[in-house]
Design a protein that fits this description.
- This protein is an alpha+beta fold.
- The chain has one domain.
- Helix content is 29%, strand content 31%.
- The strands form two sheets. The protein has a seven-stranded mixed beta sheet with strand order 5-6-1-2-3-4-7. A four-stranded antiparallel beta sheet has the order 8-9-10-11.
């Protein structure tokens, strides 16, 4: 095991009492309306989604809601409402948070000196880019901060 995997394994143990959020995948069908279906669960730690056996990068976050007909002043509001309805049609509870469009990260590649999504090895230190324009910061400190927030400490 490498340093990145060790940090993630420790994070999983520390998060054992924290509720997870749903992972979803988009499904299209010729006969049914588009929907987002359940694909697992993960702990949401900022730009990372930590699962039992892997780590994912976050993308779109949707809160499931019933489809409601209303007028929208912006096309973007209509699109967001449709995404919420897709999650509800896929079986998620009203108001449930769903992560869609996530990407699986290659921890072995990071531990070998490379990068995967927001994770990278910098001078032998596992690091994470916490925003697209942000700098790489040590993964240990990032996880400590996010876990403290999740635990409510």
């Amino acid at each position: 095991m490498g340093a990145t995997e060790d940090l993630l394994r420790d994070a999983r143990a520390r998060l054992s009492t924290v509720p997870r959020e749903a992972l979803g995948r988009e499904r299209t069908s010729r006969w049914r309306a588009d929907r987002i279906v359940r694909a697992g669960a993960a702990w949401h730690l900022g730009v990372l989604l930590l699962t039992d056996d892997g780590v994912l990068s976050t993308a779109e976050i949707v809160r499931a809601a019933e489809e409601v007909r209303r007028g929208y002043t912006a096309e973007s509001a209509r699109a967001r409402a449709e995404r919420r309805a897709q999650a509800r049609r896929g079986g998620f509870a009203e108001g449930e948070v769903v992560h869609v469009g996530w990407q699986e990260l290659d921890v072995a590649a990071v531990d070998a000196g490379g990068a995967s999504g927001p994770l990278a090895l910098v001078d032998g230190l596992p690091s994470v880019r916490w925003s697209p324009g942000g700098a790489l910061v040590p993964l240990r400190g990032y996880l400590d901060e996010r876990i403290a927030l999740a635990l409510g400490s």
